[in-house]
Amino acid sequence: MTLTDPNTFNANESPALMARAVDLVKSYGSGEAEVRALNGINVEFARGQLTAVMGPSGSGKSTLMHCMAGLDVPTSGRTFIGDQEIGTLDDSGLTQMRRDRVGFIFQSFNLVPTLSAAENITLPVDLTGRKVDQVWFDFLVDQLGIKDRLTHRPAELSGGQQQRAACARALISRPDLIFADEPTGNLDSNASAELLTFLRRSVTEFHQSIVMVTHDPRAAAFADRVVFLADGTLVGELHEPTADAVLEQMKQLGA
Amino acid sequence: MWRITVKGLRGHKLRLALTALAIVLGVTFVTGTLVLTDTLNNTFTTLFGQVYQNINFEVRGVAAFPASGAAGAIRKPLPESILAAVKAVPGVEVADGGVSGYAQFIAPNGKAITTGGAPTIGSSYSADRRLSSLRLVAGKPPSTSTQVVMDQGTARKYHFSVGNQVRILLPGSPQTFTLSGIVGFGTADNLAGATIAAFNLPTAQRLFGELGHLNTIDVITTPDANKTAVEHGIAAVLPAGVEVVTGQTVAAEQSSAINQSLGFFSTALLVFALISLFVGGFTIFNTFSITVGQRTRELALLRIVGASRRQVFRSVLFEALLLGVGASLVGIGLGVLTASGLETLLKAFGITLPSGSLVFQSRTVFAGLLVGVGVTVVSAISPARQAVKIPPIAAISTYEVAQRESSARRLTIGTVIGVAGIGVLAVGLSQPAIQLVGIGAVGLFIAVGILAPVIARPASSVLGRPLARILGVSGRLGRENSMRSPRRTAQTSAALMVGLALVSTIAVFGASLSKSATGTVSDAVSADYIITAPATGGSDTGLSLGATEAVAAVPGVTRVTNVNSGQFEISRSLATLSSLAPSDLSSTVILNMTSGASAKSLAEGMLLIDTTTANTNHLSVGSVVPVTFAETGPTSMRIGGIFKPNALLGSYLTGSGFFHAHFAATTFPVAVLLATSTGATAPTSAAVKAALRDYPNLTVQTRAAFEKTQQASIDQLLGLVYALLALAILIALIGIVNTLMLSVFERTHEIGLLRAVGMRRRQIRAMIRSEALILSVFGALIGVVVGTGLGVALADSLKQQGITDIVIPFTNLVIFLVLAALLGLVAATWPARRAARLNVLEAIATE
Fold first, then answer.
1. Of the ranges B351-360, B617-626, B761-770, which one carries the lowest mean pLDDT score?
2. Range name among B299-303, B479-483, B821-825 with the lowest pLDDT average
3. What is the DSSP secondary structure assignment for residue B397, as one 8-state letter?
4. Binding-face residues of A in 159-178 toward B, CB within 8 A
5. Is the pLDDT assigned to residue A17 strictly greater than 50?
6. What pLDDT sits at residue B166?
7. pLDDT band at B540 (very low <50, low <70, confident <90, very high)
8. Kind and range of the H or E run holding B542
9. Set of chain A residues whose Cβ sits within 8 Å of the Cβ of B308
10. Phi/psi of residue B232, each to 5°?
């Protein structure tokens, strides 16, 4: 099987680093009403790893992800995907980057309601006008167990099925990096476990890089590394975490 | 991406149908007009082709004023002696002369048979069947001086049959004839509703005052003759002022004359069709704006998974394109149906058309698609640009569809477009150039549409206050809903605004026209009675000379003046010359002279002109101008005086002596003015009417009644214009229904909550209705204000053309407002019912 594509990153990019933020600041409002969601964050995400970003509500973990994915514009500081600095890209550059390099999975699934599951999955490829890699598509839907649900509309799928379709959509164009924003937030524990297992496999088996924002220690336990955020600042990290270790760390953060 | 658009459209069928309806109606109107006029066009071309198919050549007088068009041109009659000369030309097999003139049947009930616009034709009946356009379907040709044949259309409608007696109005006194036969015109029952009375040639010559004369000579050549040689041969024997043309030329002239007037009719209808489409454009724009707003999340999601701005822009436009194509195709289909329906309607009015199928040109499809798709796509451009501005992050975080355009920018753009529109409008009105007026008005409407959101919030607040007071919570919520998104309120109202602006413009213009018309009658005429003949559609008025003699004998009638008019050429341009007997001047008309003498000038055969003509042509008393008459040729006239514009007499006036010296003896008067010793009293009226018993086609009116008729004909025209504008209003209302439906849909959750906390269905309905009321009154109010301004400007620009008074019909305008409010309530019915029927539990569950 050639599913492990050796060309998922550019040869001249640093092989170990997938994304990083340098002195990242994001503030809302101004003057006395200014709120600093991110307060000078420096963080690096490794290639071929599942990194979890954890922190209590309002810690800035979602804002961090939005800034790093180019969805939001930081107040100051720089963010990179590979060696590409996000801040230098204009809208079409950002579009190109979303097409080629990043995928997204959201808490609320975010499927297009009028399209079938299959059409939702192939949407990113369809948008580029390229041909869908049928082998890859079949493999994904088979692995995710939604093969027999492909012709259904999102409204006809369970939450878990919807999220797995969204997961397939994120993977279909073989992005360098997937941003997953609370992917299990709306799922029950069984569905969560299935989804996380798949994400874990995609990292282990075909070297997919994933950054996952979550507040669930059990989800974080699937990660290679967990970074902890509090009040817009990086406050610690764990390698090869267990759920208990994560929980312990979270308790210390007062969440 | 296309797939998303197509699927998205399929997912919102109701919204689709309502939006499409606006375009469907407009395109139906356009297509229907084109198909109908093409069909009529083709019908007449075929008909005249048939009628002239056997005739090789026609000999006739040279048109006096080619400018007036070949078919309606004034041609001098030919001396009968030419016929013998033409017959003698080698290669001529048959040559026969014909005359024509005014002849109008009187129905068995004593009333004149009118045609509703088509001419009442009198002609000679050609002995040779191949030469005649008339085809005998029953009886025999007219052979004696008391026989006539009648067209089959009239015979059917009034149940005449061969052998019946029929009375006919003629240039002289009416006479009774025996119906010897019934004829068709080519393959049709009659010529587009015209009546035909045909007599044998000597009778026709006598009746139409053409003894020793012919109007035309039709020629058929021998089968083996060289056509060109025959034509040259005929031309060689003709005196100056007589020409020979081919039958095809005559057929082409006849049909092109009819087609020209059809063209005017078609243009007028198309203008109204385009107005409907313009209003439809507002509806499309509004629907797309709202749906783009509602689809913010979805569009942002597309951006996140890799859609470029261009793709989002195109997807919205593609949606519009699909909608436009679909709606236009439906509209084209309906248009064809409408056209055939209209044809049936014409038949019901007695205008029988020669059989011919509907003409459906590819141009019609093209035009229908072009305007339908064009309006839809252009209207969607701005919403598509709005869609492009949605950032990808809107898919995950609550992103308010911010009113990004600041109201300052809106104010600037709106003002610039508005000022430009008014400028173009002003230039258009002063030129006058109707296209510029149209473009200016469109600009002005768009500007008002852009500016309206700025005042929508305070206006909704004010308009909603009484509702809040009367209806309590429901009214208050309705008011707040319309204030919540002022842009949507304004955009929804904009379509109605345009409709009402046009209606108000017409109302102001019409009221001014009406007032001016009545004003001018009493300023122009002092006679006690005015006798006129309703237009017969032909060049003849049907005011028989016999009638003048009959009323002159009525006791108490002191003066009988014929007002004549005819075409002449002055300073190389065609104009209408009127004439009066100078002796009757003071007792029958009012001429306000600004310089020169009136009666004396008329008596001496000088020309009187009105002040407008004097000013534009820089003429003054004593100027000598070159003139040309059809009968007598070029000469010159001296200006004897200048008078203030007179509605009855037109711009050029001379004495009856001079007039009759230069116009054919058979020219009918356009009106007969009577002065009496008693004034207009009932006994005198009765006596005058009794004297005219033989002339049922004539109308005798006192000055007051004449004024009223003038007014009534203006009102009738206005009624027609209102009816045509009704479609635009209908489309505007569809827009309101659409917006309300979208709002109800959008607020499902909220409505569910209101119901859950105890709001009754009735109250929900009242809430939606309040919103509709605010929307419609807001749009109507702006429309009435803008329209009144436009109407005043329009009336003011026509001051030179005789609009002397500017009247603002306040009562009418208030009625429009009330009607708009009622229609708004009607528009709310369906959305209100839908909102009231929402299942509370489900509604709350929806996000």
1. B351-360
2. B479-483
3. S
4. 169, 173
5. yes
6. 92
7. low
8. none
9. 92, 95, 127
10. -65, -40
Confidence at residue A201, expressed as pLDDT on a 0 to 100 scale: 92
What is the nearest CA distance from A72 to chain B, expressed in angstroms?
A: 7
Of B127, B325, B108, B327, the residue nearest B218 (C-alpha): B127
pLDDT of residue B633: 81
For residues B448 and B428, give the distance between their C-alpha atoms in angstroms, rounded to a whole number. Answer: 19
Residue of A nearest to B12 (CA): A114
Which of A61, A66, A98, A176 best tests the B interface by mutation, with the highest count of B CBs <10 A?
A: A98
Greatest Cα pair distance, chain A, in angstroms, is 58
- Rounded to the nearest angstrom, the minimum Cα separation between B396 and chain A is 8
DSSP string, A124-186: HHHHHT----HHHHHHHHHHHT-GGGTTS-GGGS-HHHHHHHHHHHHHHT--SEEEEESTTTT
Task: Say whether B104 sits in a helix, a strand or coil.
Answer: strand
Mutate to test the interface with A, among B7, B313, B396 (most CBs of A within 10 A): B396
Nearest by Cα to B78 from B52, B108, B94, B98? B98
Nearest to residue A180, comparing CAs of A241, A223, A126?
A223
B792: β partners: none
Give CA–CA dist B813/B787, Å, rounded. Answer: 10
Most confident of A64-73, B222-231, B746-755: A64-73
Contact of B174 with B168, CB cutoff 8 Å: yes
- Choose from A114, A119, A169, A181 for mutation: most chain B CBs within 10 A: A114
Q: For chain A, what's the residue count?
A: 255
Q: Looking at residue B622, what DSSP letter applies?
A: T
Give the count of alpha carbons within 13 A of B354, CB side only: 21
Pairwise CA distance, residues B198 & B139, whole Å: 13
- As a whole number, mean pLDDT of residues B425-436 equals 81
Model confidence at B623, pLDDT cuts 50, 70, 90, reads: confident
Structure confidence at residue A1 as a pLDDT band (50, 70, 90): very low
Q: Which residue type is seen at A215?
A: H
Nearest residue on chain A to B299, alpha-carbon basis: A112
Please check whether residue B593 is in contact with residue B640, taking contact to mean a CB–CB distance below 8 angstroms: no
Residue with the two structure tokens 């397939």: A168
Q: Which of B666, B535, B548, B550 is nearest to B205 (CA)?
A: B666
Which of B102, B103, B109, B101 has its CA nearest to residue B157? B109
Report yes or no: B456 and B488 within 8 Å, Cβ to Cβ: no
**pLDDT score of B777:** 92
A17-252 under CATH 3.40.50.300, yes or no: yes
Q: What is the pLDDT of residue B401?
A: 46
Q: Could you give the ipTM of this predicted complex? A: 0.85
Closest CA to B452 of B727, B785, B823, B831: B785
Placement of tokens 């230098």 in the chain? A88
Task: Report the pLDDT value the prediction gives residue B333, as an integer from 0 to 100.
Answer: 92
Segment B232-241, tens digit of pLDDT = 888 888 888 8
- Of B309, B283, B302, B286, nearest to B5 (Cα)? B302
Angle, CA B773 vertex, CA B767 and CA B779 arms, to 5°:
140
Residues of chain B with pLDDT > 70, as a percent, come to 93
| pLDDT tens-digit readout, B162-193 | 999 999 988 878 889 999 999 887 777 766 67
